[in-house]
Specification:
- The chain has 320 residues and is mainly α.
- It has twelve helices and no strands.
- Helix 5 runs parallel beside helix 12 and helix 10 packs antiparallel against helix 12.
- The chain is globular and about 50 Å long.
- The protein starts with a helix and ends in a 7-residue tail after the last helix.
Length: 320
């Protein structure tokens, strides 16, 4: 679940990728052709959602917070080893931004895992996407976005069965809260990206987040976290949910506009529903399937509206 700084203004893309799109805003297909970056983004989405489904299978053994702890700790170790960020030369404001980023990261993951422990992963991701979608609508301030907001609300109504009767209301509340933190995560991701080079800020924030969540995971799960099987599955979840998606999306964002990335990431609820069905045998009702389609359409519409507005606002190139 985790938007690059440039995508944050383009629409409700998940905040997982640690690097911005190319400065020229244009796609650079490279030797893989036009499908290359698209395939990378979709592969990243499949990885993170199947990682989430795998996390659900580990929760009975390690607890929700235990799984979150394993994911963040392993991800932090990998990112620190790869990025090797320097610790000196930063201001108090820089470190304040990293800590805020870390708190948001840990809280977002904790709340989302609490949600998928109670409701199917497809509806959970659908509800979570509403946070970035709301941020996009608020930032845009255009009348057309009322349509996208209306579609999203219709999706929530269908997911709730018209009265929050088909899904656990506590699980839905956790997913919505995770979505709110997702929107904040986008903001802090952008700020961190401006203050720290490459993925250094992400690596530092992941490390701080792991330290923050560790006591809660130890209290809930205790020695279960040291079980080799639990550690192995936890490492697999970290690789699928964080390390691999970060890498794939980093490569994709170097070769496609952030706006295209945001549109593709709007498909996350559908990917999550497929993962829930294949891994967890979670089936959706017809109304829940329609709800997911409505939220995806709202997310894509908000992205397209924001991109079109940006193009109209961009100054014309100097012919000289």
């Amino acid at each position: 679940m985790d938007v690059p700084p440039t995508a944050a203004t383009a629409g409700p893309a998940p905040a997982r990728a640690p690097a911005p799109a190319p400065a020229d805003g244009g796609a650079r297909p490279g030797r893989f052709g036009a499908f290359g970056p698209v395939g990378l983004v979709l592969a990243g989405g499949v990885s993170v959602q199947f990682g989430g489904a795998l996390a659900v299978t580990l929760m009975p053994r390690a607890g929700v917070l235990g799984v979150v702890t394993l994911r963040l700790v392993v991800s932090a170790l990998v990112l620190l080893l790869v990025c090797r960020p320097r610790l000196r030369g930063y201001t108090r404001a820089d470190w304040t931004t990293v800590v805020a980023f870390a708190v948001t990261l840990a809280g977002m993951n904790g709340l989302f895992y609490q949600a998928i422990d109670r409701i199917p992963i497809g509806p959970a991701v659908t509800l979570e996407v509403l946070g970035p979608l709301a941020l996009s609508v608020i930032v845009s301030r255009r009348a057309i976005n009322l349509l996208w907001a209306g579609l999203a609300l219709a999706g929530v109504f269908l997911l709730s069965g018209g009265g929050f009767g088909t899904l656990d209301p506590v699980g839905m509340a956790y997913a919505l809260a995770a979505g709110a933190l997702w929107a904040l995560y986008i903001v802090f991701s952008a700020r961190t990206g401006r203050r720290f080079p490459k993925a250094d800020g992400l690596a530092l924030a992941m490390a701080v987040g792991a330290v923050l969540i560790l006591p809660f995971g130890v209290v809930e799960s205790g020695t279960a976290l040291l079980d080799p099987a639990v550690l192995g599955l936890g490492a697999a979840i970290a690789l699928l949910s964080s390390v691999l998606p970060y890498t794939l999306e980093l490569l994709a964002l170097r070769r496609m506009p952030a706006s295209t990335f945001a549109v593709l990431m709007s498909l996350e609820p559908a990917i999550a529903a497929a993962a829930g069905f294949l891994v967890l045998s979670q089936t959706l009702t017809a109304s829940q399937s329609v709800a997911i389609v409505l939220v995806i359409a709202a997310s894509m519409g908000a992205v397209r509206t924001q991109v079109a507005r940006g193009r109209r606002a961009a100054p014309a190139a100097d012919p000289l």
